[in-house]
Amino acid sequence: MLPRKSIIPDEFSVPALVSRMPRKPVFRDRINKARFIAKGGACNLAHKNIREQARFLQDVFTTLVDLKWRFTLVIFTMTFLCSWLLFAMGWWLLAFAHGDLDLNPKAEQCVINVNSFTSAFLFSIEVQVTIGFGGRMITEQCPTAIAFLILQNIIGLIINAVMLGCIFMKTAQSHRRAETLIFSRQAVIAVRNNHLCFMIRVGDLRKSMIINAVVRLQVVRKTTTPEGEVIPIHQIDVQTESAGNSIFLLAPLNICHVIDKDSPLYDLSAMELQCSDLEVIVILEGVVETTGITTQARTSYVAEEIQWGHRFVPIVTEEDGVYSVDYSKFGNTVKVATPPCSARELDEKPSILIQTLHKSELSHQNSLRKRNSMRRNNSMRKNNSMRRNNSALSVPKVQFLTPENLQNSIVT
């Protein structure tokens, strides 16, 4: 059968009309780039095809400290068990060679009551962990046993020092202190002192301070040299207002970077920043006041996490003679007047900043006028409603007629 023809012509059908309608340009989001430093400070880097694995064994202590806890505990347990078994085998061979296993009570023994491998194992544990000698002990009749006892004590002390030091270092690692050093989730770019500035906020949750705290900023992005060499991770140092000086991190601080000619953000506008693949790394280093250990906290900001035209709200207030910090507003920002152009354009045309500030002032005045007019209208409405309610609730006057008033009204 032939298909039934529609009553509406094909050129006026819905698909045809939709195809002829002008479409708005669609801006696709750029592909998410792998960040070099995670928000928590971990390095997002995988080492592959390392051929010289023996280099890790040359620094055993650092390798043990860097291992995960489950592997460290397994190595800790197996090291002691293997050492006890190894020396138990030595004590059993010593007793076998001396004839202590013949169970002859009259014979002179190297180790008393070591008659089997189990008793040798128990004696090995007693020697190494100094639990105490009970029924099993060495005698002066066997110099070889005395030398073997000294050897086990020395090796046991070395194993205890290494293993206990490894456990202590894992519990007192510097990055544990960095857990209480916080950064704002977002970075902002706004005008400060007539210059575009990149700002972040850092804070310390503990009362014990970080001594000689220094904040460093780096911009990491993919660049190509004039010779055609591609550098996938090009690190560019960024100067801050406190560059070269330690900060007094008693309360949360705003770290400011002035976007000047030497800044890698100098040529980026608000639109270009969203399309760029740069990553700003923040590194906070200092000495822990209580332990004296150097600690380091890290974070990073990609283009999607940089708010153009925002500023951090103040969170430090004075209450009853004490400065109070409200950490619930730590990452809160407020929108401010900021030109969307780059810092280069702002330096070449200073009038852009003046016009932007003038427009923001006019809009602020208009908003104040609207608020005042709305308040006046609301107050007038309230007054009118109150008057209506009072008039509706007013009681009419009642006149009482006396006989004289009644006669006068009849006569009139």
From TrEMBL:
Keywords: Ion channel, Ion transport, Membrane, Phosphoprotein, Potassium, Potassium transport, Transmembrane, Transmembrane helix, Transport, Voltage-gated channel. The chain crosses the membrane at residues 71-94, 145-168. Residues 361-398 are annotated as: Disordered. It comes from the Eukaryota. Residues 181-349 form the Inward rectifier potassium channel C-terminal domain. Pfam families: IRK, IRK_C. Its main location: membrane. GO terms for biological process: nervous system development; potassium ion import across plasma membrane; regulation of monoatomic ion transmembrane transport. GO terms for molecular function: ATP-activated inward rectifier potassium channel activity. It is found in: Membrane. It is a multi-pass membrane protein. Residues 37-173 form the Potassium channel inwardly rectifying transmembrane domain. Residues 375-391 have a biased composition (Low complexity). Belongs to the inward rectifier-type potassium channel (TC 1.A.2.1) family. This is ATP-sensitive inward rectifier potassium channel 8. It comes from Triplophysa tibetana.
